[in-house]
Design brief:
The complex is a heterodimer of chains A (327) and B (329).
Chain A (H helix, E strand, L loop, with lengths): L6 E16 L4 E17 L3 E5 L6 H8 L7 E6 L2 E2 L5 H8 L2 E4 L13 H11 L6 H13 L16 H13 L5 E5 L7 H18 L2 E6 L2 H7 L2 E6 L2 E7 H6 L4 H9 L5 H5 L31 H5 L5 E4 L2 E3 L6
Parallel strand pairs in A: 3-8, 3-9, 6-7, 7-8
Antiparallel strand pairs in A: 1-2, 1-4, 4-5, 9-10, 10-12, 11-12
Helix pairs in contact in A: 3-4, 3-5, 4-5, 5-6
Chain B lengths: L3 E14 L2 E14 L3 E5 L6 H8 L8 E10 L2 E2 L5 H11 E4 L3 H4 L6 H12 L4 H14 L5 H4 L9 H13 L5 E5 L7 H18 L2 E6 L2 H7 L2 E6 L2 E7 H6 L4 H8 L40 H5 L5 E4 L2 E3 L3 E2 L4 E2 L1
Parallel strand pairs in B: 3-8, 3-9, 6-7, 7-8
Antiparallel strand pairs in B: 1-2, 1-4, 4-5, 9-10, 10-12, 11-12, 13-14
The chains are: A alpha/beta (327), B alpha/beta (329).
Bound molecules: adenosine-5'-triphosphate (2 copies), iron/sulfur cluster and magnesium ion (2 copies).
Chain lengths: 327, 329
Amino acid sequence: MSNDSDVLLKVVDLKMHFPIYRGVFQRQVGAVHAVDGVSFDVKRGETLGLVGESGCGKSTTGRAILQLYKPTAGEIFFEGTNLITLKREEMRWMRRQMQMIFQDPYASLNPRMTVSEIVGEPLSVHNVAAGKEIQERVAHLLELVGLNPSFAGRYPHEFSGGQRQRIGVARALALQPSFIICDEPISALDVSIQAQVVNLLEDLQEQFNLTYLFIAHDLSMVRHISKRVAVMYLGVIMELANRDDLYLEPLHPYTQALLSAVPIPDPLADVNRTRIILEGDVPSPVNPPSGCRFRTRCPIADKICAESRPEFREVRVGHFVACHMVS
Amino acid sequence: MPDLLLDIKGLETQFKTPDGIVHAVNGVSFGLKEGETLGVVGESGCGKSVTMLSILGLIASPPGKVVAGEALFFGQDLLKMPNEKLRHVRGAQIAMIFQDPMTSLNPVLTIGRQLEEPLMIHIDMTKNQARERAAELLSMVGIPNAKDRLNDYPHQYSGGMRQRVMIAMALSCSPQVLIADEPTTALDVTIQAQIMDLVKRLRSELGMAIVWITHDLGVVAGLAQRVLVMYGGFIIEEASVNDLFANPSHPYTIGLIGSLPRVDGKQQGRLYSIEGQPPVLYQKPQSCPFAPRCKWVMERCWKENPLLIPISDEHRVACWVDVKTGRPR
Ligand SMILES: Nc1ncnc2c1ncn2[C@@H]1O[C@H](COP(=O)(O)OP(=O)(O)OP(=O)(O)O)[C@@H](O)[C@H]1O
Ligand SMILES: Nc1ncnc2c1ncn2[C@@H]1O[C@H](COP(=O)(O)OP(=O)(O)OP(=O)(O)O)[C@@H](O)[C@H]1O
Ligand code: SF4
Ligand SMILES: [Mg+2]
Ligand SMILES: [Mg+2]
């Protein structure tokens, strides 16, 4: 594996189960296995893409990393420090380094706060600036994300979706973090606006040497923005590799099916493709299949796939796969 | 020239709102040929749904109103047709699949009941015939144990299965035209691939014409033969699918195709981005609706709205500039 000093974030066997309570006594009758044992590293300055279909546990992974949930099990090292063992005050300090940009630019900004208050709030909450200095910092941040600083006094509803997402980015940058989790930052935006936001994220990354965990279900955009990519299915990472290795030579049958299903905006490219059409739907995370989570839809599943869970192992240099059938 | 099943001419639809009149569709003309699949693309709010709902007489009035145009179906103007007759056309000859399957299925009726009803109303089947046909339809769209599952309620089906039921329902009376409004947008890609596979199969089996609305150019590339691109309530480009991608001729279409990364990695480097915002529709534009965002904009673009004109046999575009030369057309 990579040299440890390259690793900014290390996630080890992370599990996040949400209990389900029923009945008058509110007894626990089961749990949603939202994230069920995922391990990966994020290297300094890179973008790690995290893809997978709706409900597979991408957002939950991101939130657990930021300690917005208390994980059921596992360890999370940031700059070598285990976040799970940190006290509240220590975690607060750590949080300055780690920020999140959310999917919905309409819901994630407080409608009663001005842009200046929204972007400046982290500065005052963490006591890193006060009074006039906040205003100056806010103006600078707005300029950074391509918004006119004279907009500072306006409210979120006066902006379009793309502009609101820029406000979210400005807020995330306020404390000069080194790591940002982007949770579907463009999926609520119009196609012609998506490129604006993606280009902005790339420019900022270069300028400030930022590290991103980029969560999305759009495999084309993830290919564009990521250095390495992890593919999740039903709470588990099925495959993780360098971008080109994953897209050119996917090893896991789920990744293969997923990639073959993505529409390509080019009628000529589309003609010669072989589609792998998966049968059925994704099973419920309350009652995930035994053994390999993908076996109920897998075109090459065998007996062993129901019996034991495939280990997530490095089958080529830097290329990890969880599948019994891949040698 | 093959006969047109649908011939839409100069369609205009507006909505009265407290903030003013929304000019949602501003003079849209197009034809649908027998057996063809026509893709309609464009971003949120450009008028795709309102165009189709207007044609079928499904615009709620007030606030909406179709203020001009004709929609000829076998030579008869749907916009002037008496309600009773139009309802029959909608049930039996032109079927529509709506974007959100949960709002179009009745949650308190079984799937079977909802499939059987139109068959009994529109093509006079008996209860037993309708039951049998309903089971056939369900298995045709790939739902296993169809007979038993007729007794289920919509919430017992997954999102992808409900979308299939919508398709089965739309196809039940063997319509000549199927209008599908973003039927796969809310679905995951593996489920979307299942549905598109199904539609392609049914299309060749049943030979109907399809209008497929989407904002996803990838979906259009894989499914449509001809494409309309909409912007701000106008059709700004129309071409065969191959010509549209090989030879996009409106600055907006060019920008849209250039701003998409590709899963096969064919498009690399920095993404092309169209600066600015989509238009607000409170006024019918006197200039080109794309002018404020356009790289090629000239003086004339601010003064006159370009009409959709042919640039070759099957290719029409609404732009004052020939983007290949950068000079006026
Ligand atoms: N607070 C919660 N309580 C109970 N279950 C939850 C909670 N948050 C998420 N889940 C469940 O955990 C699973 C994973 O959810 P998550 O939001 O992480 O998925 P996701 O991959 O981000 O999906 P999407 O692409 O739709 O955003 C889902 O089944 C979801 O319903
Ligand atoms: N009931 C209504 N009242 C007022 N305005 C409306 C109404 N219905 C639609 N509009 C407006 O008409 C315009 C066209 O809407 P339409 O639903 O056709 O867009 P669309 O292209 O289908 O977009 P999407 O991709 O988001 O479905 C939009 O600006 C919309 O706000
Ligand atoms: S008419 Fe003018 S403004 Fe409109 S798209 Fe063409 S060049 Fe651009
Ligand atoms: Mg999510
Ligand atoms: Mg619509």
